[in-house]
Amino acid sequence: MSTYTKNLIAENGALLGLGFGRVHAHAATPLKHAKNVALFLLAPFIGLAYLLAFPLIGIAMLAWVAAKAVMKNEKARPVALVIAAPVIALAFVTVGPIVALGALASTAVKAVLKA
What we know:
Blueprint: H1 3-12, H2 14-17, H3 30-72, H4 77-114
């Protein structure tokens, strides 16, 4: 018997040394029971969300690979950048105020906690 196994048995008991693991008597708490029931009831909807997301993720991955390939082509790169510019600008205009509000809220929380 190796030293590791002896230490394991001495520290945790013979059952763990034999590969059975610790024996714990866990009482099911009402909160854990409610969580399990909620997950059981939500499982079909979570699966549906995954089912709907997979095609969108696949299309996004194909677009990403295609965009990388186009950016390597010297003749197609300027055209692709002209086409992508309005989309990038719209993304910045959409996300910019949200990020600014987050930064403002963060600064406010830091100021309140400091005072």
